[in-house]
């Protein structure tokens, strides 16, 4: 069968414990990628973002499934070079690395590449199958029969990676090709999902007909389980009807700050599919309608770009409701047009009354550096209340 495409939904969340998102993901009608960054003084987000860019660039051409495997293997080398260059420019970032799990659809087959402990699953005929094997220390113990999979899930060294892309060591990539068919549903996820909920829960969430709802159920399940790590989920159905939809970039790879820190990396364009849509409009539009149609599209596009630019330059400090801590956001609080950038260690309840009132209302900060400075001032106020709790305005601290 030919003419298959992927209809997808994707989402990445910081979780309940981590201060930043080191996960990254990408989804298109023929390519799914998840990368989970680690280490290097909170620079794991750079490793995962660079790897996503390298994979998308390598797998963008329409080669057959067997041929794309070589490209994916080359992408691992390229992403390692990106990471090595970053570390060479800042030795404090040494130790950063990332996992990588890729599914590339080519006609009626999928090519897979895998390094680390992010996972790929297929949900077919109401049954869930794990397609990747974790490259972890505990998985070697499971393989040798020393511990059970259930013991591995709670083992104190379960996060010790045996393979990762770090720009230092040569890495062996698991490469494979398998047949696919209409109706297959694929899940790619970081261990922030599969490390906290079991296969039965995953299958139950994936059984929902609606893709977006399935993603939401998976994220909610991980959140309910404590969400100790970042959570990235990409779910895609194999469909026979040709679909044209913009690719989606999520997590650290979509962060403009991370992209600016990687000037040598060519990040994928999420709007690439819109070019094909424009071509179709031009072909199907009568000549007399061409100018007004293009003018309207141009005005809308210009306004959209301007709005994105403006939102990208707005910053504010507020309270992250899920755990009541002070956080830095990019965008504007009105209408929910913002994204969480960084959680801090400042509990809003420890602030003096005036500062507490201000941060709950949110206040603009101009840029990220000003927001960080404002957080430092808030932390100082909270610390002073701890030292001198009798100061007017300070909250009462239970003995």
Count of extended strands = 16
Instruction: Summarize the amount of helix as a percent range.
Output: 25-40%
Q: Strand-residue fraction?
A: 15-25%
Q: From the helix content, strand content and strand pairing, which structural class follows? A: alpha+beta
What is the helix tally?
12
Shape: globular
Low-confidence stretches: 272-289
CATH structural architecture of the largest domain: 4-Layer Sandwich
SSE succession: EEEHHEEEEEHHEEHHHEEHHHEEEHEH
How would a crystallographer describe the biggest sheet? 7 strands, antiparallel
User: What's the CATH C level of the largest domain?
Assistant: Alpha Beta
CATH level-4 homologous superfamily of the largest domain:
PPM-type phosphatase domain
What is the residue-averaged pLDDT? 84
CATH topology of the largest domain: Phosphatase 2c, domain 1
Distance between the termini: 70 Å
Structural domains: how many? 2
Rg (C-alpha, Å): 23 Å
